[in-house]
Amino acid sequence: MADKDAWLSSYYSRITQEYQISMERKDRALDWSITTFFIAFIAYAELLSSTNSIWRIYLLLILELFLLRFFVGSIIAYAYLKKWKYILQQIDLYYFKKESTIEEIKTIIETYDHKGATTKKARYFIKKSVGCWFRIAIRNSDFIDNL
């Protein structure tokens, strides 16, 4: 690595850390949303025996807000994850295959890091996140059937 690319090396290290943080954030949001869903399911089943149905409505409303918050958090984390991965891939291509110039790398960094753009539209991240939730629900359907 040349001295002129030393800044790129330190930037690469920082983006690698950002990638790991985004992965942890996405996983944490997904874990909390699944936990909240199962707590809601169990609490709702318990409240079915209650004569006062207003508590079920309150429970569903509050837990729906929690699930929405975790869903939005996981979408944002997924968008950042894709952005950091794209930047890392482009820097790898620059270092190892010499497929791009340093000016192109600077443009990519300017676009995706400094301006806050993402690699895909919001619709893509929503669709992928919903699909991920359904795949997890299907994978865990044996657990639900045994409740």
Q: What order do the SSEs take from the amino end to the carboxyl end, as H and E? A: HHHHH
Oligomer: single chain
Number of domains: 1
Contiguous runs where pLDDT drops below 50 for at least 5 residues: 143-147
- Main sheet? none
Count, helices: 5
Question: Would you tell me the structural class of the helices and strands?
Answer: mainly alpha
Compute the number of strand runs.
Answer: 0
Distance between the termini: 58 Å
> In percent, how much strand structure appears in the residues?
under 5%
The average pLDDT value, as a whole number, equals 78
Anisotropy-based shape: rod-shaped
Query: How large is the radius of gyration?
Result: 21 Å
Fraction in helix: over 70%
How do you describe this structure in short?
With 147 residues, this protein is an all-alpha fold. It is built from five helices and no strands. The chain is rod-shaped and about 75 Å long.
